[in-house]
Design a protein that fits this description.
- The strands form four sheets. Strands 1-5-6-4-3-2 form a six-stranded mixed β-sheet, sandwiched between helices.
- The C terminus is likely disordered.
- The chain has eleven helices and twelve strands.
- Strand 2 and strand 3 form a beta hairpin.
- Helix 5 runs antiparallel to helix 7, helix 5 runs antiparallel to helix 11 and helix 7 packs antiparallel against helix 10.
- The radius of gyration is 31 Å and the shape is elongated.
- It starts with a helix and ends in a 53-residue tail after the last helix.
- This is Receptor-like kinase.
């Protein structure tokens, strides 16, 4: 009897543990199902919000503008192989630029904006994109689309086969550009700036005109890119007082010293860039002899000695040039480098002078130069200038008093 009772208790205990285990497993299964459904609902909600934001962004961009696309971030990750370093084209002031290939085979330049430097909210970012999209000219890089996904801000531009001008003129590749090609590049940049300053429905100062921000298509037609520092300018103001931003070596003195920003700052930068294109060297090179280190200063010394033709890239001189044509362009560059903003001609006059529609009037004054006597590092600044720059009160003058050029 005791053995039978003990056996029954064991069976009862086993059944109890079995039922208990099933109950616990059932509760765990129910909890897992609830969690799965909750997580699924959460993901669905996120997806709905993402799609809603995507649709809202598309609608915001479209309006009366149907010229650009709104890209999904995953699409751009796939196009750039997850922003692989092997696809890196360069780094702009606001983030790296990658080559990308879309599903339809198109090559694009994908600029991933740095989260630290681009602190705009989504609506501000999209508003700026919409404004940039409304500015279209054959000598400005075309914005194809954008992406705003959480903290990610991405711009998608047309891809330029010959990349940036600095690769061509700073000896970073072996491709030689003859005078006709260089003149085409100079004229194209001038026309792009004329559009920004004078012909667009909004007045725009680029603020960072330099060789690395000039892109070249397959025919070496130039396009101005990287509008990260660009400022929309009130029509009724001669200049804006603002904090300096840009690249030293290309900077106009009134902007670097007093923070006075106007279109004339771009014109000064253009003058420096023209000298770089003609000489095929950087505007500052501390490895050269003292008088050659700063390009505009060296060019002016040659001009005073009536030897400015020596500035021209020797390869271009060997290839054959019409000296008068090159000297005309150098003279235009000096006019762009005048020490006071109101002495620099507007871009429309510069384009006219380059295309010989008007004669270059006047002899340029000595440009402003940095005093580098105690500066022997790369951190050059406009802390000390070879002459003072008081604000001039007389009205803007588009040309200088006519004087005979030196022989």
């Amino acid at each position: 009897m005791q053995a039978s009772g003990s056996s029954s208790e064991m069976r009862f205990s086993a059944l109890f543990f079995f039922l208990g285990a099933i109950t616990v497993l059932g509760i765990l299964l129910i909890l897992m199902i609830i969690y799965w459904k909750f997580d699924k609902a959460k993901e669905l909600m996120k997806s709905m919000l993402r799609n809603k934001r995507l649709e809202a962004s598309k609608n915001f961009l479209n309006g009366n503008l149907r010229t650009i696309s709104y890209f999904d971030f995953n699409t751009l990750k796939k196009a750039t192989k997850n922003f692989h370093s092997g696809y890196l084209l360069g780094r702009g002031g606001f983030g790296p630029v990658y080559r990308g290939k879309l599903a339809d085979g198109r090559l694009v330049a994908v600029k991933k904006l740095s989260a630290e430097k681009s602190q705009q909210g989504e609506s501000e970012f999209l508003s700026e994109v919409r404004m940039i999209t409304s500015i279209q000219h054959k000598n400005l890089v075309r914005l194809l689309g954008c992406c705003s996904d959480g903290s990610q801000r991405v711009l998608v531009y047309e891809y330029m086969k010959n990349r940036s001008l600095d690769l061509m003129i700073y000896g970073k590749n072996d491709q030689f550009l003859n005078w006709n090609t260089r003149f085409q590049i100079i004229l194209g940049i001038a026309r792009g700036l004329q559009y920004l300053h004078e012909d667009s429905h909004v007045r725009i100062v680029h603020r960072d005109i330099k060789a690395s921000n000039i892109l070249l298509d397959e025919k070496f037609q130039p396009k101005i890119g990287d509008f990260g520092l660009a400022r929309f300018f009130p029509e009724d103001q001669a200049y804006l007082s603002t904090t300096f931003a840009g690249t030293l070596g290309y900077t106009a003195p009134e902007y670097a010293i007093r923070g006075e920003l106007s279109e004339k700052a771009d014109i000064y930068s253009f003058g420096v860039l023209v000298l770089e294109i003609i000489s095929c060297r950087k505007n500052t090179n501390l490895t050269l002899s003292s008088e050659m280190q700063y390009l505009p200063e060296y060019a002016w010394k040659l001009y005073e000695r009536s030897r400015v033709i020596e500035l021209v890239d020797p390869r271009m001189r060997e290839d054959g040039i019409v000296e008068n044509d090159v000297l005309q362009v150098i003279n235009v560059a000096f006019l762009c480098l005048q020490p006071h903003a109101n002495q620099r001609p507007p871009m429309s006059e510069i384009v006219a002078m380059l295309t010989c529609k008007v004669k270059t009037v006047g002899t340029p004054m000595r440009p402003a130069f940095m005093d580098r006597r105690n500066k022997r590092d790369e951190n050059l600044s406009w802390d000390s200038i070879s002459e003072p720059f008081p604000s001039l009160t007389r009205s803007d003058s588009s040309s200088l008093p006519p004087q005979p050029p030196p022989n």
